[in-house]
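re: ur question from yesterday

yeah so i grabbed the chain u mentioned. its 322 aa long if i counted rite. heres the sequnce exactly as i have it in my notes:
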Amino acid sequence: RERALEIENQLSDVRARLAGHQRRLTEHLYTAQEKAEAERLAGRRTLLEKALQSLPKGVDGYEKRARKTRGVYEELEKRGKELWVQIESLAAQLAAIERYFADTKDKQKIPPAVFEQQVNEMRGLVEELRKEYDRVRNEIQSAKETLGVGDATSVEEGKLRAELKQVVDQEKTLAAQVMGRLPPAQRAKVEQIQSVLERLASIEARVASFNQRIDQTVDQRLEETRTILAEEKVKVAGYKQQVGEYEQQSDALGGTAALLALRGVRNRAYTLVVESDVGVTDVAWALKDSKSQSVSKLQREQERERRLLEEEFQQVRGAQTK
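ran it thru and got these structure tokens back, copy pasting raw so excuse formatting
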């Protein structure tokens, strides 16, 4: 595409120069009205020629211009970052002023309402500067991304080339009206110029056909890309639906797991309580049995001692009787 544009620029340069030669060969034969029209067309052609004079015409011309323009945008970005630092510095100074006023409110002569109004105005100004910076930064970034054969500059240049062709065609028609009054030698030159202009138009048609093939190729590739994107969008929609289902399942699973966990905790707690109750009962029974055995032992000891005392008492009583 860049090479095609370079060829179109060369054709426009040749067309403008041929139109100038044609006018010099035919202008002396124009009537007053034709001369006025020829001068108007020549003036417009001269302006267009100057506007198109600096267009790239050699190999890699557009690439070199793109590199140069990209460097300008990068410098603008650097300058924008410097301005951003200044904007943020203003915001920091404003915050410091507010802090100082709050700390020295008793010593300030400015009414708080007036100070607050001025601070709000400055805060609004800083916010506007931030928005303007964001807008300019986005424009610079967009210009860098679209830099090349399809940028706004190239589109405008295409309009200028089309207008130049239209002006030269009008000059060609005007010259054809007086070509029959020219001497044979000059008429041959004018015919030759017009023949070359027609050949230029033929070459431009071939370049346009070439550009059309590029557009068709790009459209085909874009169509493939659009198809892939459409398929991927359907897949993404399916993925989102699956994710939603998984989330519902996970919520339900989480609730079930929580319920099972609570049931497990409840069962374990019940088991612990029962085990603790059984344990307490076992311990109590063991203590009771131990105490019972002790009591029984004491009772047996008491009974043995009672019998011994009775025997001794009977012996003593028998001895007294004798």
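noticed a couple things. The chain has a mean pLDDT of 83. also The two ends are 157 Å apart (CA to CA).
anyway ttyl
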